[in-house]
Specification:
Blueprint: H1 6-9, E1 13-16, H2 21-31, E2 39-44, H3 45-50, H4 52-61, E3 64-69, H5 76-84, E4 89-92, H6 101-122, E5 127-133, E6 148-149, H7 163-177, E7 184-190, E8 192-194, H8 201-212, E9 214-218, E10 222-227, H9 230-240, E11 245-250, E12 253-256, H10 257-268, E13 273-277, H11 279-282, H12 286-295, E14 298-299, H13 304-307, H14 314-327, H15 329-332
Parallel strand pairs: 1-2, 1-4, 2-3, 4-5, 5-7, 6-14, 7-11, 8-10, 9-13
Antiparallel strand pairs: 10-12
Helix pairs in contact: 2-4, 2-9, 5-6, 6-7, 8-10, 10-14
């Protein structure tokens, strides 16, 4: 059942579109610190119907979930704030990587923009965190130094977003940073999320490869990863600081594709063979092309509040995701791929 008012719940951390992979791991972060009751996940009724497994997992954590909204746009944010008050920290987690351009744009741009504008008007000083992607900055050939990319001096100057979702995320970054007079805005550019509830399409592919005993390793191409629970830790580090607005790379580790598959195989109790593959082979798919273009670089940050953040080690994060997948294969078919 949808839950009651924000005041009654004493929740000051809002996860808009939080009924997903990242939202679950952000909720885990707070639950692990005894703060589950401070978290309210807001989702569309249809999302809850399609993701009943995640809904159940969130409830087990003890966080609050409201899925009474038919839509997250069209004035939903204003009505929500008027009814429930102002949160301290808001994560804007809606997103869509593929599909019709209109739907990709709505999820990545219009919904986050509408919530940020409503918060700026009614909740000055609130911290808003937007989950972006390294693909928003895109092709780094013009700004990489020795294969390492850091934040551009001027937002998105010289950047060429990659893919439709990357373009949409870049546009959302621009619109949200225009609201810095009323809000504290943090843009986190994430890599491949690694953590529990790894039900996304790419993880299903990794699991299939592990089952086949094949660990492909394209030469000079890595995978930039973000420990999913640490997204919340990074956001809290920003909130505790004094910066009004910022954009930052939050993909601290670069691992081999074979490393990911091997971690899954180990959790399954299987052995795999590393298979060298030419990067050109990956160009046969859209996702493969994006992997090659992004995977030639490492991402670092010059933001002081983030440089000192104690990220979960890559191996530990991979093992966590692998254990979850190995023990939860039976529920993957119950989640959208």
């Amino acid at each position: 059942m949808p839950l009651g008012g924000l005041e009654a719940l004493d929740a000051d951390i809002l996860l808009v579109g939080g009924l997903g992979y990242l939202g679950y791991n952000i909720a885990r972060y707070y639950a692990s610190r005894g703060a589950a009751g401070r978290v309210l996940v807001v989702a569309r009724r249809r999302s809850a119907e399609r993701r009943r497994v995640l809904l159940d997992l969130l409830r087990r954590l003890g966080v609050n979930v409201d899925y009474s909204l038919e839509s997250l746009s069209g004035g939903a944010a204003e009505r929500f704030i008027a009814a429930r008050g102002c949160p301290r920290l808001v994560y804007l987690l809606t997103g869509k990587l593929r599909g019709a351009r209109r739907l990709v744009w709505e999820a990545n741009v219009e919904v986050p923009r509408s919530w940020a504008e409503a918060l700026a008007a009614s909740c000055p000083g609130a911290v808003v965190v937007y989950a972006s992607t390294v693909a928003a900055a895109g092709d780094a050939s013009a700004c990489a130094s020795d294969g390492v990319v850091v934040e551009e001096e001027e937002h998105l100057r010289g950047c060429r977003p990659l893919g439709e979702a990357g373009e949409a995320k870049a546009e959302a970054e621009r619109r949200l940073l225009q609201l810095c007079d009323g809000l504290r805005v943090l843009i986190l550019r994430l890599g491949l999320l690694v953590g529990e509830a790894a039900y996304h399409r790419e993880w299903r592919l990794f699991l299939r490869l592990a089952g086949l005993g094949l660990a492909p390793q394209p030469r000079d191409v890595g995978v930039n990863i973000t420990p999913a629970m640490d997204v919340a830790g990074a956001a809290e580090a920003f909130a505790a600081g004094g910066e009004a607005c910022s954009w930052a790379y939050a993909a601290p580790w670069r691992v081999g594709l074979a490393d990911i598959v091997e971690a899954l195989a180990a959790a399954l109790g299987r052995r795999v063979v590393r298979v060298p593959v030419p990067a050109a082979l990956l160009y046969l798919t859209r996702e493969g092309r994006l992997l090659v273009k992004l995977g030639r670089y490492r991402y670092a940050t010059r933001r002081g509040w983030l440089r000192s953040y104690p990220w979960t080690p890559a191996r530990k994060a991979l093992e966590e995701a692998a254990r979850w997948l190995a023990s939860s294969r039976h529920i993957l078919k119950l989640l959208p791929g």
